[in-house]
Design a protein that fits this description.
Strand content: 5-15%
Order of helices and strands: EHEHEEHHHHHHH
Structural class: alpha+beta
Low-confidence stretches: none
Shape: globular
Helix content: 55-70%
Distance between the termini: 40 Å
Length: 220
């Protein structure tokens, strides 16, 4: 079988959700880490970055960019995209909500960490934790949609792990459905293995931020 290759940086960013999905679907992959500007320019010259951005996933003979397209392809391939058009629509809705939630943590290191976390706590947690807690309670299966893990659940656990990492496990104490969901998801065999593996990236380091700025010529 052809090697699945994920090209991104040695950090979380937009690539971490792709890693989570590949792991949840049991798809082995190779991390290709961008280190220098010329690495990125070579991808452009080879026509692999349609929209001139990463992550890039090479899978099934495809060269996929745009993170949402990537994770949906993986979800369909791995059976984590629902059992009907109605379930898929709900999965999309919840997944996009998890991306809005997770976006509060993306800029740690690129902007003042204290300000980023204060904004995440005052605006992100207060808005999204009640929504997802109620959604889980209403569905009643332990998952956001249907009775099995989906793309939406993988997106949510990625966001929740940032919440508990930066604000502590007690942050979920007032949200029993989310607390149970968090415990259940991290104990899923494939997710648990991924969390212990070197492919699970740590928080944004100075080196990661510097590499992103250098390679992409970011002025932020």
């Amino acid at each position: 079988m052809a090697t699945v290759r994920l090209t991104y940086f040695d950090g979380r960013g937009l690539g971490e959700g792709v890693r989570f999905m590949l792991a949840a679907c049991g798809i082995e992959f190779t991390d290709i880490m961008l280190q220098e500007r010329q690495d990125y320019e070579k991808l452009l010259e080879d026509g692999k970055l349609l929209f001139k951005q990463v992550p890039l996933l090479e899978i099934d003979g495809l060269e996929l960019v745009q993170t949402s397209a990537i994770v949906r392809h993986i979800a369909r391939k791995g059976g984590l995209y629902g059992h009907s058009n109605e379930e898929s629509a709900k999965i999309d809705m919840f997944y996009e909500g998890t991306r809005d939630f997770f976006s509060y943590f993306l800029y740690i290191g690129f902007q003042d960490p204290t300000e980023v976390l204060e904004r995440a706590k005052s605006k992100g947690l207060s808005r999204y934790l009640p929504i997802f807690d109620q959604a889980l309670k209403k569905n009643g299966t332990g998952f956001l949609v249907g009775s099995a893990m989906s793309l939406a659940d993988v997106g949510l656990i990625e966001a929740l792990l940032s919440v508990t990492e930066y604000f502590g496990e007690d942050t979920l104490s007032d949200y029993p459905s989310l607390k149970a969901f968090n415990a259940m998801m991290v104990s899923q065999e494939r997710i648990a293995a991924f969390l212990k593996s070197p492919q699970k990236k740590g928080g944004n380091t100075d080196a990661y931020v510097a590499t992103c700025k250098k390679v992409l010529e970011l002025d932020i």
